[in-house]
Amino acid sequence: MVRYYKNQCESKAFWRIKALALITLDLKFAIIRLYKLQFSTFVKEEQVIMTTYGISTLAVIPMRSQPSDKAEMVNQLLFGETYKILAEKGKWLLIVSDSDGYEGWIDHVQNTTISKNQWIQYLKAPKTFLSKPVTAIVREDLPPMFLSFGSCISSEIKNIFPESGFIFPKEDRIELPDSFDADKMTAYASLWLGSSYLWGGKSVLGVDCSGMVQLCAKLSGYQLFRDASQQATQGEIIDFLEEAKPGDLAFFDNEEGTIIHVGILLEKQKIIHASGKVRMDNIDHHGIYNSDIQSYTHKLRFIRRLS
Predict the structure, then answer these.
(1) What is the pLDDT of residue 139?
(2) Taking the model in full, what pTM does it have?
(3) What tens digit of pLDDT does each residue of 103-155 get?
(4) Which of 165, 222, 243, 298 places its Cα 20 to 30 Å from the Cα of 228?
(5) Given strand 92-97, what is the order of strands in its sheet?
(6) Spelled out in words, what is the top-level CATH class assigned to the domain 182-305?
(7) Cβ-Cβ contacts under 8 Å for 169 (sequence gap 6 or more)
(8) At residue 44, what are phi and psi to the nearest 5 degrees?
(9) How far apart are CA 291 and CA 69, in angstroms?
(10) Which residues face 14 on adjacent strands?
(11) Residue 72 in contact with residue 199, Cβ under 8 Å?
């Protein structure tokens, strides 16, 4: 009788375990089916396309982190910058900038597509870059277009778009130097003083700290990455603030040690940086001291020299 009861208990336990295993298996398959359904919907909505090419024919094109007007602006394309189109989702295009490899989403109505051959010819063509804060570009039968510092000018754009009517100025344009010039770096930085801060911005109407530094460095002969945390990997480390020179870059971190800010050093422990607006502040081994509020605003992490 005891043995029979024991066998019955073992049998019931076996079937309970088996039933539980089947339920678990069914749940696993349900999750897999749901995942496949969601994945197939995602692939359908975001269509990877054969690489095509584009060029900015607007003064500024915002690049966003996600395909939405409400998404964070992470960067801007300036006039004359080219890019590759990687994917599309609804009215949005995922692009990668040719100038610094930065990815983001742009609205298709702001896209100007060019052929691969036109893209190649444009990249090979001589280029100059606007060196004043704002330059008016005349257009036949249209109001002038106002372009910002660092916009790219090439006669090749007239060959691609002969009907555009662009008349480019002969002055206020420079070719990129063959090597880095620290004096130009500080001179260009001073042109930005008073410009409003704008996260992801790259124009004098709104710029962030790394966008300003990237453009000043580019026109001074050095190609920097887009974000401060990326720029912090470039150049030579300078051990002490007392050894720094005008044109060096100072980087600042948060409590977690992440690089969140960058500025351009001047003489006499001064720095130009974008915080609220592009401003000039004092700097010491602690960080940036804002005399307006009589407080430190950014903690110094290290200094790098471009060469």
Answers:
(1) 87
(2) 0.84
(3) 999 999 999 999 999 999 999 999 999 999 999 998 888 899 999 999 999 99
(4) 243
(5) 73-78, 60-64, 103-107, 92-97, 82-89, 46-55, 113-114
(6) alpha beta
(7) 135, 136, 137, 138
(8) -65, -40
(9) 37
(10) none
(11) yes
